[in-house]
Protein-glutamine gamma-glutamyltransferase
Amino acid sequence: MIYLVRHATTYSYAEPVLVAHHHAHLAPRSFDGQTCRRSALRIQPAPTLLNEDGRDYFGNRVAFFTLQEAHRTLTVEASSRVEVHPRALPAPGETPPWETVAAMLRAAHGPTLLEAMEFTFDSPFIPCGDAALRAYAAPSFPPEQPILAGLLDLMHRLFRDFTYDPAATTLATPILRVLADKRGVCQDFAHLTIGCLRALGLAARYVSGYLLTRPPPGQEKLRGSDASHAWVSAWVPGAGWIDLDPTNDCIPGKEHITTAWGRDYGDVSPLRGVVLGGGDHSLKVAVDVEAI
C-alpha cells in the first residue's frame, strides 16, 4: 500500500515568541517493512535555519530548525509519501521460549543482541522494576511459553482489560497509575506493555507513527480525522522486531505507518523545542492519511 500522509501542527501563543529552537520527528523512516519515497516540511514563519537531514541515536530522521523572527503562531506541516509492505511472521509456537530469549539478552554479545539489549532497561517514561508490572505480565508468560505466543496473549489481555479514555491520563501519568485505573490512550498502553515486557527481561521499544482510520458506515471521512498513533515492537530471535498494537489488539500491517522508534515517547515526540517568550499557548494537530 502507498499512502500520502499530512501532519499539521499549529501552536498559538499568548505573547510573542522571540527565539525558538525545535526538532521534529515527522518524516517516516525506511526499513524492511516500509519505504519513505519522499518527505518535506513547510514551516511558517520561515525558519532562519533548517536542517531536514538529521538522524538521532536510533536512526530516526530528525529535522532541526531555528526561528529568530518574533511570532505568535507557529505552523509546521509535514507531507510524506510512504509505501508499506508488511513482513511475514513466524508461527507463534515455533518461536523460542521467553526465558531463553531473556537469557540471551542478559548475556548479549554481537551487534544484534547488544542493540536489542538496550531496550530492556528503565527509561524516563517507563520504570520497569516494579513487581506489579511483572505480576500483570506473568499469566501470559508461563514456563516455556513461546515468546510470540506470550506477546500475543499479553496484547489480547490488555485490550480486554483496559478502557480507551482520552480524559483519563496526561503525558505525565505514571504507568503504574494506568495499570491501577485500567484506562488511558495508545501512548499509555504502549508504555505499559513495554514496561511489562522489560520487567521480564525482554526487549521492547516504543513506536510512533500513523494509523489509517475508517469512518462509521454511511459517513464521509473528515479531513484531519486520522491519528498519530503509538504501539510496541518486541524482539524475537530469528524474526527480529515484531510490532504489536495493544490499543487495537492487532499486529500492525498495511494500515500502520512508522515514523520513529525509541525507548519511550520522550525519544520520538513529533515536535518539541525551547522558546523564549510566548506565555500560555494552545496546540492544534490535524492528520490525514490517504491511500493512493
Q: What stands out?
A: The helical segments are 98-106, 111-117, 131-137, 147-161, 175-181, 186-199, 265-268.
